[in-house]
Design a protein that fits this description.
Strand order of the largest sheet: 1-2-3-4-5-6-7-8-9-10
Shape: globular
Order of helices and strands: HHEEEEEEEEEE
CATH topology: Lipocalin
Number of domains: 1
Helix content: 10-25%
Strand content: over 45%
Mean pLDDT: 91
Radius of gyration: 18 Å
Structural class: mainly beta
CATH class: Mainly Beta
CATH architecture: Beta Barrel
Amino acid sequence: MAKEKKHEKPMDQQAMMDLWQKLAQPGEPHKLFAGLAGSWTTTTKEWMEPGKPPTESTGTAEMKMLLDGRFLYQEYNSQMMGQPFSGIGIDGYDNVTKKYVTAWIDTMGTGIFFMEGTANADGKTITLKGSHPEPGGGKMSHRAVWKIQDANNQTFEMYGTHGHGGKEMKFLEIVYTRKP
């Protein structure tokens, strides 16, 4: 964990309120998210085992900004393992921690999956990390790479380590194309 910044002397109440108000304002990362609002078609590939071909499916995603441009909300619908699949994601940029954050829920479970991470210099490639408990025991660690190519194209890739001898493997790729 990152070390907490310690102030030599406590901030007075007004200075603290001023800082919170400043940090509560959407910035450049939020503007990038706002550009993703709209309707998307998706093409998904899932790899269940190394060396085996992926299963493919198509779907849709609806994205909109929440809370005056602070968070990107996504409703995703597709197929997974031949079954209907729906998920909801909330993505943001935390001005306090200076990290990208995401929360995800879907029809494959009852838990909430959290990830956080950073972006490259132009903010268009975001790398997130997280983990979640597995039903059979243990944890699966994830790394996601979200590439925003332009206003009409983005790709989301997930890599994980569980069940593959501790070696990371790509298990998901979603290509988003904005609907005309």
